[in-house]
Design brief:
This protein has 278 residues and is of the alpha/beta class. It is built from ten helices and eleven strands. The protein has a six-stranded parallel beta sheet with strand order 6-5-4-7-8-9, sandwiched between helices. The chain has a three-stranded antiparallel beta sheet with strand order 1-2-3, covered by helices on one side. A two-stranded parallel sheet has the order 10-11. Helix 5 links the parallel strand 5 and strand 6.
Length: 278
């Protein structure tokens, strides 16, 4: 969750071609990965809004009508602005690959945008969820959002051993891994045999030595998360509507407060997402 959600601002559709299924006034949001309808990720599906668009901190922008999606009816524009990157990345972390079943255990690293959505989605699927953070205040918020167990990794730096203790030595079924080099070895140590580590970030520095051996020893499945496809986005929106999931927004800033919003992001004191309202 290292982005501010105005980057993918939800808007009402206003200028649409005659062949489009959209109509003026529709509440829509752009896909982050333009060109990925569904199935496995491929070179043709890596056209990214990050590299191929001028940005979203703007009042008006244009997209191919094929690559915008309907906003869930239960969400405001501000809430919907959190979905295209953070929420869909979390969806892919939790649900892509081997099926997550009720009673599975999921380890979530951190309490940023991707991590909080991962917590919400895993709980909606009936999983037991363990969350890590360096802040007891953030861990308290995670408990209020449904986390079953929490670990402060500052006071408990060998947090992988605590995960194993909490799972009676078995390990978790899946990890939402946002730290990258600084945490992946402990994430691998935390999973059960055949478990999944969904790598979605690289926030921490560290030594990758030993990663290959850890993967072999656990028979681990390590999957890189490329945000998600349009089909996955539709499935995610269905769950959000059915389970009445509400994105966690730490603070909403006005356009004129954009520098303050980025400073708030830099300070790392937030839970969930930060939004700039146009």
């Amino acid at each position: 969750g290292g982005e501010i959600s105005s980057s993918f601002r939800a808007k009402e559709a206003s200028m649409l071609s005659a062949v489009s299924s959209w109509k003026p006034g529709d509440r829509v949001s752009p896909m982050c990965m333009q060109g990925w309808q569904g199935g496995p990720v491929a070179p043709s599906s890596t056209t990214s809004i990050f590299a191929d668009h001028h940005g979203m901190l703007t009042q008006y922008t244009t997209f191919d009508a094929a690559w915008i999606t309907k906003i869930p009816d239960n969400l405001s524009f501000e809430e919907a602005a959190t979905l295209p990157c953070a929420a869909l990345s979390a969806w892919s972390c939790v649900f892509e690959g081997p099926r997550l079943t009720p009673g599975s255990t999921v380890l979530i690293l951190g309490t940023g945008g991707v991590s909080i959505f991962g917590l919400q989605f895993a709980k909606a699927a009936g999983a037991r969820v363990i969350v890590t953070s360096s802040s007891d205040e953030k861990l308290k918020a995670a408990k209020e959002l449904g986390a079953d167990e929490v670990i402060n990794y500052t006071t408990n730096p060998k947090w992988d051993e605590e995960v194993l203790r909490l799972t009676n030595g078995q390990g978790v079924d899946r990890v939402v891994e946002v730290g990258g080099p600084g945490t992946i070895l402990r994430s691998l140590n935390s999973i059960k045999m055949g478990g999944v580590v969904s790598v979605v970030g690289f926030l921490g520095a560290g030594d990758e030595a030993g990663v290959t051996m850890a993967i072999l020893q656990k028979g681990a499945r390590v999957q890189g998360v490329h945000i998600g496809s349009k089909d996955s986005n539709a499935a995610m929106n269905d769950l959000i509507a059915i389970a009445k999931i509400k994105p966690v927004i730490d603070k909403v800033f006005s356009f004129d407060q954009a520098p303050e919003a980025y400073q708030h992001l830099k300070n790392q004191k937030f839970i969930g997402k930060i939004v700039i309202k146009m």
